Amino acid sequence: MAFWNRNKSEKEPTLVAEQPAPVAVPEQPPVTARAGDREGETWVSRLGMGLGKSSAKLGQDLGDLFTKKKLDQDTLNGLEDALIMADLGPVTAARIVAQFSEGRFGKDIGDDEVRAALADIVAGILLPVAKPLVLHKPGNGPFVILVCGVNGAGKTTTIGKLADQWVKRDGRKVAIAAGDTFRAAAVEQLKIWADRAGAMMISKDTGADAAAVAYEAYQQAKDAGADILMIDTAGRLHNKKNLMDELEKIVRVLKKHDDTIPHATLLVLDSTTGQNAHAQVETFREITNVTGLIVTKLDGSAKGGVVVGLADRFGLPIHAVGVGEGAADLQPFDAHDFARSLVGIRG
């Protein structure tokens, strides 16, 4: 079954060096908080507010462009530039403009029609990747999720938010393994989230072998009857060879328990890095079998368009997006909601 029960359906960028994240206690939502529980708000309205910086910049550019009554080449060139500046990327921007101009060139066009048309085209790009993370019970052990991403991308808080939702809303038994063993701050923050969610926390001493943590965590989670085991991992891209070796070893030792493990490998991406997210996807796909993406910090970025570029270029499932600090601020990715919010269509 789906983890979230919703009925709605060139030049390579340079990697940004990750910065050690301070231990920060995330804002604690009420125990009963869920998407749409905040008074007067729905998830769609919160997504719209979260994408406010992105939609405001794009909306201003669209307003400046479409002052003429007829669509001409200068306007199309300006639209392509605006989409590139919104971090959709040059290839995706060119594709959208080409599709947008079909049947409209030389014709009168208004602002509302522009936004509606762009939303439809963007949704068409996003629909094939808007897929929920699906859970199954593999035999008598837990469903194992390996969580990857550069340090500071939001892995720890994403794990905590998922655990909070699965335990409190779905009644699942969740275990969390601290596989980033060289950062004591990451382990401490993960424990805060685990305690808050009511999840089982599994860790070893600082500097312990990450593969050993993962191997023992699986057995402990299985013995405890856990439904889900999430394994945090390191994200030190300044030494890709070491990271590659560590992740390869984690996967190898987990397969000693069961050859199908991990059942999912999620890559967490910080949207504020913009086009650098493309380089991160390429790097982690070289290292491990990434099965899906989670995009965080959309509320702090004017670069929400990067989600569209990622979908167009890689075609990897996008399971969820985050627009805030609370557990309910991470929700399933919906192509239509995202596309409309990105171009500034409310409601």
Please describe what this structure looks like.
This protein is of the alpha/beta class and 347 residues long. It is built from 12 helices and 8 strands. It has helices at 43-50, 52-65, 73-85, 90-101, 111-126, 155-168, 184-197, 210-223, 240-254, 276-287, 306-314, 335-342; strands at 143-148, 174-177, 200-202, 228-232, 264-270, 292-296, 318-322, 330-332. An 8-stranded mixed β-sheet has the order 3-2-4-1-5-6-7-8, sandwiched between helices. β5 (264-270), α10 and β6 (292-296) form a beta-alpha-beta unit. The chain is elongated and about 70 Å long. Residues 1-40 have low confidence and may be disordered.
Keyphrases for this structure?
8 strands; eight-stranded mixed beta sheet; 12 helices; disordered N terminus; alpha/beta; 11% strand; 347 residues; elongated
